[in-house]
Amino acid sequence: MCRLMGMGACPHSHQAQSSNWGFFNQHIWGDYDQHSQGVRVEIVVPQNSDHLFVQWASKAHYWQIIEHGVCIYERPGPFDHGKLMIIDDAWVCVGSANWDARSLRLNFEFNLEIYDRRLALELGDDFARIRSASKKVRPTDLSDIPYFVKLRNGFARLFSPIL
Asked: CA dist 47 to 14, 27, 30, 61, 80, Å?
């Protein structure tokens, strides 16, 4: 699946719903500034992961994403392993495979790539509904995290390539 590097070719919007943060890494975001490219990026993730260590590692990545103007929302409720990406209300990728090279190479899961404006708009409406029921993560939320929790999350982040 697209590792968000395809956003440079998508000048309008990008929406992603994922339970996995494997594709959010410093190398991707280090060279990317969505504001200079006019791209709106919104990401919805579960508020609580099915694996606590993965949740800690994921939250350690938030500041790198938010500092580039990306909006992160945490969705309450039961954990959902499904992945959804919508680009420019025309291209959709949906499935269960994590969006990182290791998972795509080793795991037996499936994603479907669809070029269909009508379906993309319908899924975009679902995405908007889920996003509106989710809590937006703000920079102040990150700065208020206790030092010990930041340290714990940063330690967990070291293991991101194998989680």
From this structure: 20, 25, 25, 14, 10
CA dihedral 105, 110, 113, 118 (to 10 degrees): -160
| pTM of the complete model beyond 0.85 | no
Helix (H, G, I), strand (E, B) or coil at 152: helix
Compute how many other C-beta atoms are within 10 angstroms of the C-beta atom of residue 161. 12
CATH topology of domain 5-162: Endonuclease; Chain A (3.30.870)
Residue with tokens 């409720």: 77
pLDDT digits (tens, 9 = 90+) for 59-94: 999 998 898 888 999 999 888 888 899 998 999 999
Handedness of CA 35, 2, 118, 109 (dihedral sign): negative
Per-residue model confidence as pLDDT tens digits over 91-141? 999 988 877 777 777 878 888 999 999 999 999 999 999 999 999 999 999
Pairwise CA distance, residues 16 & 25, whole Å: 15
Which residues of the chain form beta strands (DSSP E)?
Answer: 13-17, 40-46, 71-75, 83-87, 91-95, 111-115, 135-137
d(CA 39, CA 154): 28
